[in-house]
């Protein structure tokens, strides 16, 4: 699923870590960061 540019999404993934998706204003790609809790 695509989201509008500058949309920031974040949620917990299976209670094991933190996944953050960032759709920058200059493109439709995303960067993802996964942090263990």
UniProtKB/TrEMBL annotation:
Gene3D superfamilies: SH3 Domains. Coiled coil: none annotated. It comes from the Bacteria. InterPro entries: PSA_CBD. Residues 1-36 form the PSA endolysin cell wall binding domain. This is N-acetylmuramoyl-L-alanine amidase family protein.
